[in-house]
Amino acid sequence: MGLFWRVLIILPLFFAYVNGEYFTYPARHTGKAELAGFKGPDSLATDGGGFFSGPLVVENDATATPSNQGGTTEVTVGKPGDNTLDASVGNDEIKDASMIEAATTFKGSWELFLENGGVSAMHLQLLPKINQALMFDATVWKISKIKLPPPCRHVEGTNEEDCFAHSVLMDIETGKLRPLRLHYDTWCSSGGLDINGRLVSTGGFNNGSDTVRILDLCDTCEWKEYPGALANGRWYATQVTLSDGKFMVFGGRDFPTYEFVPPEGKKNTHQDVVDFNFLVETHDLVENNLYPFVYLSTDGNIFIFANNRSVILNPKTHKIIHEFPVLPNGARNYPASGSACLLPIILKPNEDRRVIPAEILICGGAPHDAFEKADLQRPKVFLPGSCDCARLDFTKRNSKWKILNMPSARLLGDMAVLPTGDVLIVNGAKTGSAGWDDAREPNLNPVLYKFKTDGTGSKFTVLNPSNIARMYHSSFAVLPDAKVLIAGSNTNPGYLDDALFPTEVRVEKFSPPYLDPNLAMFRQEIITEKSDNQLKYGQKFTVQIRGNGVIDQQKLQVTIYSPPFVTHGICMNQRLIQLGILEFNKDVAPNTNNIVLQAPMNGNIAQPGYYMLFVNYNGVPCLRSMWVQILP
Fold first, then answer.
1. What is the pTM of this model?
2. Which overall architecture, per CATH, does domain 109-515 show?
């Protein structure tokens, strides 16, 4: 059966699109994003036709505003100390009357950052210190939109040469690209940053499935590749960072197992592989448990969600110690492809709690048979995606899912945890499934999920739409200036410009509502040369900020953010932690203040490595974050 499904996935590579009128974008103009519009329902009758539920629709409450125009702004101030908590629903329902934040009607703005990013960003990772975004897809198609410098790559097992790059480093300020050479296929791989900020990538397709790759941080660094380092092939697997900075990698097609990633240059044997029956039990006819959602819990255990079930695994004893209730209403993992994130971990000053709450948020997905209907059935049927958002505190063994309704259905989406702790739900489609040409109805409108509320209004806000459809294989990165980089989208087995949804190489930046120009007065500047950038667990450290006017400590929030490895709607190791403020020393220099903070207590709360430190004032992030390193 495993061989059957592998052949089934590979067959589309040889499939020729026939008998269809394809949707195409208007002529592209450098520096200007254009509106995507369908020719009509008949244009969707590709590859045997299919049912279509309507044209592109922009939500009524998300009318676009000019890109640099602010909204109506006010500062909302509650009564300090009047907080209530409904213990039955978790931290998100804190009716926080002490919340003091600038409110705005601004729905965000989009800018086209780069017309040609070189590759379609199936995978995306922001790298620390050098402020470069690493984007890569796969070598299997032997084509991209950027050439390699000589020599070309020899294609293993053939007499062919591949002269295209499949991996690039992009300067997030200038857009300058540097192509990187890959020999082992990274298609649908996994990854994470190590303690020193290097990317450690695992798995992929074919000759890359058992490969470990490392990319260091320098202007001339190239990939170092170690084929055969993993004992099992890891295609559509998930990598998680442990409290000591080591990695585990879970699952992958045909391998319901996990293993620890070996040190650089070493190889695992089959004795290093642990069978994981949970991945057997959660396997539907069409999988729906690939790219499981995996997060390190604040108690050192591992939370794993696959399909519609979730467990806590002890990584030392290899025993499942708890299973949570089933999440209803469909499947959430590939190819149903919902998205997930770890919600902010909130620390108190002089933190001494034995267990720090940690919650997962899972949004969207599709019915269990969505892939079967869209990919295997003729004519294709594109089932509606899920409108659910569900959250669970997995540090509590009696937790139950709390389910909310999003403003619209979404699959193939992404979830970016913003510096303030709110979540940007972006990219994706409203119907269908993951797979080649298996989804319809791009969901162009991002949605902002409010992590905390004052007890009034909706937790969701529909934001201004993009003009570019971001479907299967889209990605994101939260940037140091608090914008969000948006890239990728490829529903085609190769690079196609005339398909229903063309292979997308344009790169955008989105400015969330907190970047309303009318709120610029609240943006602080971190004085990096006067701030501590190497942290030790539990110890005090100081961050210096400069801004206009008198600063009220009650309006300050300091967070650290671990940039994730993003692919297929999964953001591996994304983690935002709000730090406890111990002291606030005003006026150490004109318009300058010192914030004394406590670093997280241990690696279960914050794994060792690099984080972006943000200072938010009135709910508005600082001008630019500072990279800090938590030492082991």
1. 0.87
2. 7 Propeller (2.130)
